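Please complete every field before forwarding. Incomplete forms are returned to the sender.

SECTION A: IDENTIFIERS
Entry label: holo-463
Bound molecule: potassium ion
Molecule representation: SMILES string

SECTION B: INPUTS
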Amino acid sequence: MTPLSGKPVVTAAKMRAAEEAAIADGTSVDILMARAGTEVAQTIRRLASGSEVLILCGPGNNGGDGYVAAAALRAWSLPVRVAALAPPATDAARNACAGWSGPVETLAETKSAPILVDALFGTGLSRALDPAIVAALRRLNARARLSIAVDLPSGVDTDRGVALGDIPAADVTLALGAPKPAHLLYPAAGLCGAIRVLDIGVPASSDVMVLAAPDLPMPGPDSHKYSRGMVAVVGGDMPGAAELSAIAALRAGAGYVLLLAEHGALQPHAIVRKAFTPDALTDKRIGALIIGPGLGRGDEARARLDQALASAVPLVIDGDALHLLDTARLDVVRNRAVPVIMTPHAGEFDALFGKGEESKIDRARAAALRSGATIIFKGADTVIASPQGAVRVAQSANAWLSTAGTGDVLAGAVGAFLSGNANIAFDAACAGVWAHARAARRLRGAFIADDLADALTAVRSRL
Ligand SMILES: NC(=O)C1=CN([C@@H]2O[C@H](COP(=O)(O)OP(=O)(O)OC[C@H]3O[C@@H](n4cnc5c(N)ncnc54)[C@H](O)[C@@H]3O)[C@@H](O)[C@H]2O)[C@@H](O)CC1
Ligand SMILES: Nc1ncnc2c1ncn2[C@@H]1O[C@H](COP(=O)(O)OP(=O)(O)O)[C@@H](O)[C@H]1O
Ligand SMILES: [K+]
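SECTION C: PREDICTED COMPLEX
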């Protein structure tokens, strides 16, 4: 279990608002900073185990946290030095600096230490770091045994999750109060190292949360194959992809999987195979229809997609079917009475909804709003967004997922959960992403999509 799962993901503005609310409630900014800095110091103490600590302090409140932490470490008689980029520029940071009784070195001239603490900039960074700052940070980071970032690695954009310059990666990032988008979204997430959230007594909430384990029903005495959920998969030009979705749906717990394809494998026998006919989509027992994996992009594929869109069945639209979604078909998606889940990777997302400079979270949310569908915007930082505005961000599961067919497996898992309860498409999408990630973590390295589908059995039995 990851410590981040289930936590709200808070933007810089929301964090500032939460801080202001705490101040309005009677906790001064100095007390907030004292708490944050002391929490930071306690974590540094554990991680440093007696080695010398160098704390780099910036001009704002992130630097203020750094001064508080330095003073605490010194009070505990631990070896600590401070180097500043500029004098403190806020009242709270000035007060914190006044509490530090040691010398303040300059960033350019300070010598490295085994433990580097980056308290230069946090959520207040407003532009790219000066190249001289980046150079100093890189030099000190390269010589440190462990580098710890306070709140965020300095130089990342809090909300968009991008790096503003060629900044070095931290080994550990101490997220203050709550994770921010940059702790989860790549490329910034890749610069954070391990993330620990420190409680600073500032409650923050958000409709964006880190994806958490789903609560799924287990079969009971009353269960039968149709009540467990019936999934149909529409086949097409490339049989393997639809097969993968079908196997994944079964292994994620669907009671009945129907593969509507003209050709394909004979195994596993548990998949019920029939040729595609439009009539097959009228079976009222179908709880979810997966279309796209291996569908192809020709006339027949287009016809099957239109029949699927016109049907009364909840849909998972993936792969080739996403390529066939033009404006007119997107209108059909929006006006459907039953739910649609779309699972684009970055290329498919750009083609469907356009490129954008906004964060992946904002782009996924806008796409869900526009299409009326639940969007699973895939990648190492998969974002799930509902048309109602709820968002979940998944932590990176395993980069070995970057292999052909793993998306087909995801579509299958999502289809299985959707077929069990189509009322809550968003929950089904979240459960699918969670199970898929768990399966990938169990497999570690160089697995193939077939292994991933098979691994869903063990994952599902524990959810
Ligand atoms: N949000 C909270 O609840 C709390 C936040 N605290 C800390 O406060 C931080 C936010 O503090 P601030 O808003 O002061 O922001 P920062 O400390 O991140 O930096 C803001 C300062 O840096 C300057 N600046 C911004 N970009 C720059 C650049 N590229 N080059 C040079 N100067 C630049 C700004 O003009 C401003 O003076 C958080 O990250 C956290 O560390 C804690 O002290 C206490 C509680
Ligand atoms: N580098 C990565 N780290 C973590 N997950 C990844 C990475 N690359 C891809 N994935 C995941 O693997 C799956 C790939 O899906 P997709 O691109 O549709 O592949 P395919 O079409 O071959 O099945 C998605 O769930 C995606 O989130
Ligand atoms: K920092």
